[in-house]
Write a structure and sequence with these properties.
Layout (H helix, E strand, L loop, with lengths): L23 H8 L1 H11 L4 E5 L2 E5 L6 H18 L4 H22 L22 H22 L6 H22 L18 H24 L11
Antiparallel strand pairs: 1-2
Helix pairs in contact: 1-7, 2-7, 3-4, 5-6, 6-7
Bound molecules: zinc ion.
């Protein structure tokens, strides 16, 4: 899954009730933490894309095995606990939960390439990507639901921050479409050729830049959309 991961990023035990434990830009990084690790491993040449028995899948034994993902979730939660002690133990679990949402959503769309532990023979994935436009609807539906919810629990300081939110949605919808339409990236359509798309350092760096860009943009929008339920509700 690509953009759909950002749907659950709005989840926080406090959002819609009080001041969220995790800001949305931090949530944006948490839901992609597994892919951030993946990007570094791709740059290092340890993980990547492969064709196995004619099916394009990822070779992701470390970042995307259930055990590896759980390890990343605990590390990310621990990092958050240290950097933002005010979030307390709840902040730890919210971050860990956001990180693990990535694995669950990948399980739905990936073709079988998710193992339980590095090197495990059993590869899981329900392969919704074999139905590219259904997958597209699912991914963008998740983002839409997340943005819609967030729109309702925040108050824009000016119109700009409302327009920007939906402009970002359209931009993400375009990025998602690229995974179906652009030759070399046609992963969802099941016709991609790892040799024709970006790979290695280029693939890893472009992924990292996309994650940073989206977190940065949502952070800016967030600066103009404070929670409706602040620490001292009026
Ligand atoms: Zn992933």
């Amino acid at each position: 899954m690509f953009m759909g991961h950002y749907g659950p990023a709005v989840w926080d035990t406090q959002r819609g009730k009080g001041t969220p434990l995790v800001t949305l830009w931090q949530g944006f990084l948490a839901v992609q933490a597994i892919d951030i690790v993946w990007a570094f491993l791709v740059i290092a040449g340890i993980e990547g894309q492969v064709i196995r028995e004619g099916v394009p899948i990822f070779h992701i034994p470390y970042s995307h095995s259930l055990l590896g993902s759980a390890f990343i979730a605990l590390c990310a939660g621990g990092m958050f606990r240290v950097l933002k002690p005010s979030g307390g133990n709840r902040g730890f679990w919210v971050i860990a939960g956001l990180v693990m949402s990535h694995w669950v959503l990948d399980l739905i769309v990936h073709r079988p390439d998710l193992s339980l532990y590095p090197g495990g023979d059993l590869l899981l994935g329900f392969a919704v990507w074999d139905y590219p436009w259904a997958a597209y609807g699912l991914e963008m539906g998740l983002v839409f639901a997340g943005f819609w919810f967030w729109k309702r629990v925040t108050i824009p300081k000016s119109m700009r921050y409302s327009i920007a939110l939906w402009a970002l949605f359209l931009f993400m919808a375009m990025l998602q479409a690229a995974f179906i339409l652009v030759p070399g990236l046609q992963l969802q359509a099941g016709t991609f050729d790892p040799a024709a798309g970006p790979q290695g350092a280029l693939l890893g760096l472009s992924a990292l830049m996309t994650f940073a860009l989206l977190a940065g943009v949502i952070g800016w929008i967030e600066s103009g959309r404070p929670s409706r339920y602040g620490a001292n509700p009026a």
